[in-house]
Amino acid sequence: MRRKRRKWMALVLALVSGGAAGYLALGYMNRPLSPRSASANAMAHIVVASRDLPMGTVLGPEDVKQIEWPAVDVPPGYAGNADEVMGRGLITSVSANEPLMTTKLADKDAGGGLPIVIPEGMRAVSVKVDEVIGVAGFVLPGTRVDVLVTLTPAGDREEAATRVILQNVQALASGQTIQRNANGEPQTATVITLLVTPEQAEMLTLGATEGRIQLALRNTLDMAEVETDGVKAATLVRMEAPPQPAARSNARAPRRPSGGNSVITYNGAERTVTTF
Question: What tens digit of pLDDT does each residue of 125-148 get?
Fold first, then answer.
């Protein structure tokens, strides 16, 4: 009887415990989310590129789209509405689905193309090139070059000199293209546009006007500047005086007597010829 009563008590306790647990779980599920939990799940609308867009593009309706983005991960300076970016130019290239932040866009009235990618205080200067000057077409937008100038004063070729006048200069455009392709293939162009300071623009213009310039392509990770003294034509091949012919002696060799046999003997510096 006592054992039966214990079983009933255990069953009642189990039912009470289960009911309490169920009630607590139901109350937890039905309670409103805390502000912190709600903000973690909140979504925001941002504007992204609908396709890969090159630098200088003026954005139109076909270039952008609006998507949802977790509010806690929204990048600073994002555009939340397509109207905020319409008609603005890109100062850097963007990839498809990349958020369009204000730091990547020019002002509303700035337009597009090359002018909007020139930083404040800098200048874009174009120089005429051929396949040799343009490093076989590998001077592309975004690459960096050194500029060498060769000058020949007053037509004196022996005084012709070459020196590096600019280092680590960025190429903005090759021909009329301001965006290189993904494969970095060479491109035929008659002009290269370089990004320089006003002082460098003066040096580059004078060098291209008074002499001949040459571009030297750099590794894009190589930022070091090198001090050089330049080189003159006279130091490339040093001209030496031609060897002088050996001096001819006026002393004549002794004549051998004609006929018979001769024996020559020496006694110190004395020479004796005996003929018989």
Answer: 999 998 888 888 889 888 999 999
H helix count then E strand count, the chain? 4, 10
- In order of 240, 247, 248, the CA distances from 243 in angstroms are 9, 12, 15
Mean pLDDT of 215-243: 81
* Cα distances (Å, whole numbers) of residue 107 to 97, 112, 120: 22, 10, 13
Tallying the residues shown for the chain, one arrives at 276
Residue 145 structure tokens: 């070059």
At 140, list the tokens.
């592309």
Contact 140, 187 (CB under 8 A): yes
Rounded distance, CA 147 to CA 167, Å? 6
Q: In order of start, what are the domains of the chain with their CATH numbers? A: 42-115 (3.90.1210.10), 122-234 (no CATH)
Phi/psi at 47 (nearest 5 deg)? -100, 130
What is the residue type of 27?
G
Of 137, 147, 135, 126, whose CA–CA distance to 213 is shortest? Answer: 147
**Which among 175, 161, 181 has a CA at the least distance from the CA of 127?**
175
Rounded Cα distance, 267 and 247, in Å: 29
Q: What element of type H or E holds 77?
A: none
Summarize the confidence of residues 204-229 as an average pLDDT. 92
Place of tokens 């007053």: 154
Q: 134, 171 in Cβ contact below 8 A?
A: no
pLDDT at 259 over 80: no
Give, for 9, the enclosing helix (H) or strand (E). helix 2-30
Task: Tell me if residue 260 falls in helix, strand or coil.
Answer: coil
How many CB atoms lie under 10 A from the CB of residue 214? 19
